[in-house]
């Protein structure tokens, strides 16, 4: 059965009503939905609803909420990845896969070796659409958060004030590995850009109380590293 995300503001009592033009086009023109059809819808508050379409026109779609289901598909561990910006196609793919795995949040970061150094409004909308569609597809009930763009030192400062364990992945680390260092249900981890981190950035992370960890003997691509980290942590969940 088709699943959709609708914002919590669309829900009222036993009904949900959406007037988003893109959504209306999808269910009317692509899915050719008609009144009486049933869908699963979720609103980012946990769980999902079995909903019946009771009204559809060019201005809105209205659903009757028939039943609410609790969800066991969200990770019990909270993973926050501070991802240095990557080239557009790589970043698209990375966000999609992290959302599928169930990462709690991604904070986009500009570090010294980043080639891409900004996020336009158009890009941000695309990234949010990718996250929404990935969550709909994989059966998730909570959207991965996508934070505001910050520079590396701002990210260190913010992270140092948060609850949980904090790590930075570095290819030159040989003693500490990810698997044996995770003992918390909230994990913050920094992943560098193409080309990795500057040594000065690693030292700044150390001063901020962020522990260096190895992701193994091989050097991973920047977009692969985030997927690897999320998979390891989710597997320990």
Explained architecture:
By secondary structure, this protein is of the alpha/beta class. The protein is built from 6 helices and 13 strands. Strands 7, 8, 9, 10, 11, 12 and 13 form a 7-stranded parallel beta sheet that branches. The chain has a 6-stranded mixed beta sheet with strand order 1-4-5-6-3-2. A hairpin with a 2-residue loop joins strand 2 and strand 3. Helix 2 runs parallel beside helix 3.
In whole angstroms, the N-to-C terminal distance is 28 Å
Name given to the CATH architecture of the largest domain = 3-Layer(aba) Sandwich
Sheet having the most strands: 7 strands, parallel
* Share of residues in strands: 25-35%
Mean pLDDT, nearest integer?
91
CATH superfamily of the largest domain: SPOUT methyltransferase, trefoil knot domain
Please identify the top-level CATH class of the largest domain. Alpha Beta
Give me the strand/helix succession.
Answer: EEEHEEEEHEHEEHEEHEH
Number of helical segments with 4 or more residues: 6
Could you tell me the number of beta strands?
13
Highlighted features:
237 residues; alpha/beta; Ribosomal Protein L25, Chain P; Alpha/beta knot; 7-stranded parallel sheet; 6-stranded mixed sheet; 6 helices; 13 strands
Present the secondary structure layout:
Blueprint: E1 3-5, E2 11-12, E3 15-18, H1 21-30, E4 38-42, E5 48-56, E6 61-69, E7 78-84, H2 88-101, E8 105-110, H3 121-138, E9 145-146, E10 150-151, H4 152-160, E11 165-169, E12 186-191, H5 199-207, E13 211-213, H6 222-235
Parallel strand pairs: 1-4, 7-8, 7-12, 8-9, 8-10, 11-12, 11-13
Antiparallel strand pairs: 2-3, 3-6, 4-5, 5-6
């Amino acid at each position: 059965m088709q699943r959709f995300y609708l914002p919590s503001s669309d829900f009222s009592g036993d009904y949900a009503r959406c007037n988003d033009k893109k959504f209306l086009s999808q269910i009317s023109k692509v899915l050719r939905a008609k009144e009486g059809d049933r869908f699963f819808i979720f609103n980012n508050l946990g769980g999902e609803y079995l909903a019946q379409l009771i009204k559809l026109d060019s201005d809105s779609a209205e659903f009757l909420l028939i039943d609410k289901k609790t969800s066991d598909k969200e990770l019990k561990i909270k993973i926050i990845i501070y991802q240095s910006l990557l080239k557009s196609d790589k970043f698209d793919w990375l966000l999609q896969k992290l959302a599928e795995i169930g990462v709690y949040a991604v904070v986009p970061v500009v570090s010294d070796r980043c080639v891409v150094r900004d996020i336009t409004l158009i890009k941000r909308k695309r990234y949010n659409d990718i996250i929404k569609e990935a969550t709909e597809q994989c059966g998730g009930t909570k959207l991965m958060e996508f934070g505001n763009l910050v520079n590396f030192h701002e990210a260190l400062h913010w992270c140092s004030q948060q609850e949980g364990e904090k790590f930075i992945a570095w290819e030159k680390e040989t003693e500490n590995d990810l698997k044996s260092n995770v003992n918390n249900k909230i994990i913050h981890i920094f992943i560098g850009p193409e080309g990795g981190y500057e040594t000065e950035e690693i030292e700044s992370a150390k001063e901020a109380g962020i522990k260096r960890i190895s992701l193994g003997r091989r050097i991973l691509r920047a977009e692969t590293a985030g997927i690897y980290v999320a998979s390891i942590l989710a597997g320990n969940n």
